[in-house]
Amino acid sequence: MSISKTYNPKEAEAKWYQYWLDHKFFKSVPDEREPYTIVIPPPNVTGVLHMGHMLNNTIQDVLIRRARMKGKNACWVPGTDHASIATEAKVVAMLKEKGINKKDISREEFLKYAYEWKDKYGGIILEQLKKLGASCDWDRTAFTMDPALSEAVIDTFIHLHKQGLIYRGVRMVNWDPKGLTAVSDEEVIRKEVNQKLYYIKYALSPQSADGSMQSEESQISNLNTQYLIIATTRPETIMADAAICINPNDERYSHLKGKKVFIPLINKEISVIADEYVDMEFGTGCLKVTPAHDLNDYELGIKHHLEVIDILNDDGTLNEKAQILVGEDRFIARKKIAKLLEEAGHLEKVEDYKSQIGFSERTDAAIEPKLSMQWFCKMAEMAGPALDYVNNGDIKLIPDKFINTYRHWMEHVKDWCISRQLWWGQQIPAWYAPNGEVVVAKTAEEALNQFKNLKSEFANLKSSDLRQDEDVVDTWFSSWLWPISVFDPTVCGHPEAKGNADVNYYYPTNDLVTAPEILFFWVARMIMAGHEFRGEVPFKNVYLTGIVRDKIGRKMSKSLGNSPDPLDLIAQYGADGVRVGMLLCSPAGNDIMFDESSCEQGRNFANKVWNAFRLVKGWEVDETLPNVNETTIAWFDSRFNEALAEIESNFNQYRLSEALMASYKLVWDDFCAWYLEMVKPAYQQPIDAATYKATVAYFENILKLLHPFMPFLTEELWHDDVFGERASTDCCIIAQMPESKAVNTQLLKEIEVVKQVVSEIRNIRNTKQISPKEALNLAIKVSSDINFESYKAIIAKLANISEMSYTQDKLSGAATFLAGRDEFFVPLAGNIDTEAEKEKINKEIAYLEGFLKAVDAKLSNERFVQNAKPEVVANEQNKKADAEAKIKILKESLAAFL
Predict the structure, then answer these.
(1) Greatest C-alpha distance within the chain
(2) Cβ-based neighbour number of residue 842 at 10 Å
(3) Are 657 and 580 in contact (CB under 8 A)?
(4) What is the pLDDT of residues 212-257, one digit of tens each?
(5) What domains appear along the chain, each with residue ranges and CATH number?
(6) Is residue 81 within 8 Å of residue 39, measured between CB atoms?
(7) What highest taxon heads this organism's lineage (predicted)?
(8) Which residues pair with 244 in a beta bridge?
């Protein structure tokens, strides 16, 4: 079979992905093999592929493909999240374009439109993942609002409510005035914005201004002062103020504790309270306390029993309780009230100010802290076991630097607001009687029975009298069940259930690959749900990726225009090139400084493998020729197995970037640059059968090794007739991954010296401008126990050496260099630059003497020698002996020039 001159990624990707699908290589069913399971972090149905998805799913695919090749029953479950806020916003916008207002249609009509939108757009990202090569079991594709998964959510809600872990109450929440819903903390994006700091005068009431019994300092400070000045960024909320707070240790204001001030413009009287929460250094040291519109103020309000006045409507406009500017938007009101304050003489000054403000991730509206009647889930009780699993190592966070963050979150966990004022999602299974009483039940009929058993006054109640809660549960309340519900949703809400064959085989899953920013909001909650409903962890390892940034460190985003389209990258560099490019610069837990040149490097690597294969494929084999490459074959066999052990170790530590780099170096440097050069026959000459067979076998193992990283290229080459005729199911995707065998460490060390010799001779040719075609002589002064006769053929071939001899003396008029402990001379017939050679030797001596000084310092450190492992100390002693021997040889060489 002929092979094209260049690799065509587009053609190979389309062909082999369909081939894998047709032969059901991604499909998994329980059997006798060890399972290896990953559940995809379900992307939002509103999403399209971005660079974060590319990284996350490439890592998952590498892990799943490698497990499959190691003989495990690999199952990667794909799916999407209904993304309640984001999807509802999309549907509302779509309806608006059609001239339809959500308020004018029923819930049922809206959901019909929403499902139509989801069916049309919701699967886009999963189709895009196929372009990347994602080997998911697509038959298992799940959606968080599939009927069975939705029922699991409802059952979970009912179960936790019965356990006393879900309750309804008024609490401060993050309110999205544009989306008209509460949002979770993880849906709030903090941004630094330019604001104004307004200094507002609050007039002291007459009884507060007499200043009786003030300290001398206070008297001076408050002389002729009839007001307190408050610094705030939100003057539009002053009408909701319940108190002014001072620090009890602040002598400027301590005499005013318990006194009264008037709120400007509305002249309402409020008290001055004291609390150490107040920062004396910020603003004027006085704090306006607005319990309904600030979380910290709310806590102060509870502590000091303050009135709570909510002056904002759900859409962010001022309501009647504000008394002024009623109906105005909060930001317009801010500008207008600043003007009113100035006109009334209540505005001292205005300063520019920068601060962090929360914005809704989905609508980009500024978040409003708001007191609201919501459903909450108690977290403290469930957080304990979830923390223990990580502390005990039952779940490993990779890298482990995130353990302290996780521990802090779990030890300071707050109740979870799980209700959302939306229609897209699982509707809360709560039912209200006409008098407002509420029960939690799966159906109206079940709720009716509960009411009738609750009180006699409900005896004549009908199910049609009941009203179901309008709200839906938070999206995370469905996705925290994901590792269980994708296998057996009936287990959720029913911890006593034994579960079906799937959940008992695939659960707990093995690895979860996700982002650190949802470590608490999703990962921790999945651990809680796993403990609650299965009594065990949902996964064993959590691989935390970093943020993909551009090469100057900015987070990639559409708004900045610095995020390339992943599909464009695949079209330009091939899926394998992009996968390699992403992984080369992505250590676990650290941000990725992505540069498109990495994808170019990945593409070049694919081309390197392709061209190396074409070279081997083009060799003519002569069965009669003897094998002259036994040493080279033995060396690469050891080198391959050494690299294999290193790669395996990196995978075991989830150091995927390092595993790829080790594979890259093995192929590019050891195989292509050295092994193939060592064994390839002279131009238009045949190769012996033994060398050819060994080389083809190595290439086949290299394809196996590279397949998790580069699935398309490796599958394309795997089916070439170089490897003989293959059955239709004999594919690289399910080939057995090679296992590391014995390594000849002495041979590896000696070949490294040989490679150094060849490199030094090539360097001499370059610096002296000697043609590679001109044969040179080589003399060796041997100090080590290396038998260079064993490597004579390799050195002669790669360095074009016509004669290799041995000497006990220095050779004058020769270029000299060290490799290991041995000294080498290349006679140059008077062409040598004596001064340049002396300078080169002096530089090398200086370097080695500095190195020796560092080693001596380490060995003279008693603590190091006592505490280090014996082999580490021995290694340092070997370094010292080696450096001393090299310095001795170099000084002898230098003396020969004098």
Answers:
(1) 117
(2) 13
(3) no
(4) 434 434 433 443 358 999 999 999 999 999 999 999 999 999 889 9
(5) 181-208+224-368 (3.90.740.10), 430-468 (no CATH), 568-743 (1.10.730.10)
(6) no
(7) Bacteria
(8) 272, 288
Task: Kindly tell me the sign of the dihedral angle through the C-alpha atoms of 813, 817, 823, 827.
Answer: negative
**φ/ψ (deg, to 5) at 108:** -60, -45
Judged by DSSP in three states, 471 sits in: coil
* Burial of 827 from C-beta contacts in 10 A (0-12 / 13-18 / 19+): middle
User: Contact at 8 Å (CB) between 135 and 733?
Assistant: yes
Distance CA 667, CA 15 (A): 25
Q: With contact defined as beta carbons under 8 Å apart, do 175 and 329 qualify?
A: no
Q: Are 765 and 652 in contact (CB under 8 A)?
A: no
CA distance 896 to 838: 10
| Tokens encoding 539 | 């996964």
| pLDDT tens-digit map of 782-840 | 999 999 999 999 999 999 999 999 999 888 888 999 998 899 999 986 555 667 777 87
Q: How far apart are CA 895 and CA 882, in angstroms?
A: 20
Burial state string for 295-304 with b = 16 or more CB within 10 A and e = fewer than 16: eebbebbeeb
Alpha-carbon distance of 432 to 792, in angstroms, equals 92
pLDDT per position as a tens digit, 726-760: 999 999 999 999 999 999 999 999 999 999 999 99
Tokens at residue 638, please? 């050891």
Listed residue (219, 294, 286) closest to 247, CA to CA: 286
- pLDDT digit string, tens, across residues 391-439: 999 999 999 999 999 999 999 998 999 999 999 999 999 999 999 999 9
Residue 310 is predicted with a pLDDT of 95
Q: Do 478 and 150 meet the contact criterion of CB atoms below 8 Å apart?
A: yes
Q: Is the CB of residue 63 less than 8 Å from the CB of residue 13?
A: no
Torsion, Cα of 861, 867, 870, 875 (10° steps)? -40
Q: Which of 166, 188, 178, 184 is nearest to 469 (CA)?
A: 166
**Per-position DSSP letters for 183-200, written without gaps between them:** E-GGGEEEEEEEEEEEEE
**CB neighbours (10 Å) of residue 14?**
12
pLDDT at residue 451, rounded to an integer: 94
How many angstroms separate the Cα of 295 from the Cα of each of 172, 175, 289?
6, 12, 10
Q: What is the DSSP string of 309-331?
A: ---B-TTSBB-GGG-SSTT-BHH
Q: Is 558 annotated as a binding residue?
A: yes
Count Cα neighbours of 504 within 13 Å in the Cβ-side half-sphere. 7
Cβ-contact 673, 566 below 8 angstroms: no
